[in-house]
Amino acid sequence: MKTVDSKTDKDLVALMEKAANFHGHLGPYLVIGVRIGQIAKRILNTNPRKISTLQATAKVPLLTPFSCVLDGIQVTTHCTIGNQKLRIEKSQEGITVYFELQNSDKALKVSVNPKIIGMLTNKISEGVSNKELAWEIVHMPESQLFMIENR
């Protein structure tokens, strides 16, 4: 996929390969979902014992490529449609994911910056490749991609 030098980069590439294998290809909205899942696990401090208590509600437009976010969330958080820990709600605009830990008051809201969605829409319409856009999102600062609120 991409050449790397450091262990961290190798771990990142391995995660992107895992997500792409699950989803079928690597694309920018899949990477957005992966990054959202990573944020939730980091901020809510989900260790292997607590990961089973994590639940997510994703509000996304139910159209590709936006819905690809869902697969990234599933790969990183183990909140899946099948285990009913991932609920999906249709959004007319924007992408927002709410996370909570069962039996806890810990919760998190992660929204994708609308400017990023606009930028991706423009670049996709210009013919920029999914893979190129995906790696752009991988390396973009979290603060540029998301609005994050602890609740």
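(the above was protein one; protein two follows)
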Amino acid sequence: MNLPRVTTIINPPSGFEAIPPDVLAAAGERGTAVHEACAAYALGLWSPVPDDLQGYFDSFKRYFDSYVVDVIAVEAELIHPAFRYVGHADLIASVRGYLTGFTVVAVLDYKTPLTHTPKWNMQCAGYVEAAKEQYGASVGGALQLRKDGGLPKMTWVPDQNKAFAAFLGMLNGYNYVNGGKG
């Protein structure tokens, strides 16, 4: 099944074209290594962490140890059967402390950039909608890991319905441009 990926749908020309390819490649490598180490930790496994990325990993561990009650899925591939797209959730877990202190099933997406972008809300909303039935997810957010190892910033999607509607608009545009399916 060849379905469009959430990250492809929300990332039309983005301005990254002006960033030197070696800088983008280094950021991609950093993200991959951090994600691998975080996945291993969430699964209770050991994974080596390069010295220059230890702070990001320590930041993840601080959040995980403080707020994750139960791991439901790690690096889960999500397929939305009705809207026909696929996504890749970094972590689906029961998380304590969501806004008012309740425990909820959340989809968390790890991020290493310092600046939040609204695209992250659409990305997480797409993941949550695809994870609702199978995993019981109800909220999602970006976990902005800190290079210095401090407690990361958890940015919850402020309005799941609005963010998902925006994502669906981009999905429709993507389908239209790539085959007239929209």
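Reviewer note on protein two: Strands lie at 68-80, 85-98, 102-111, 139-144, 153-156.
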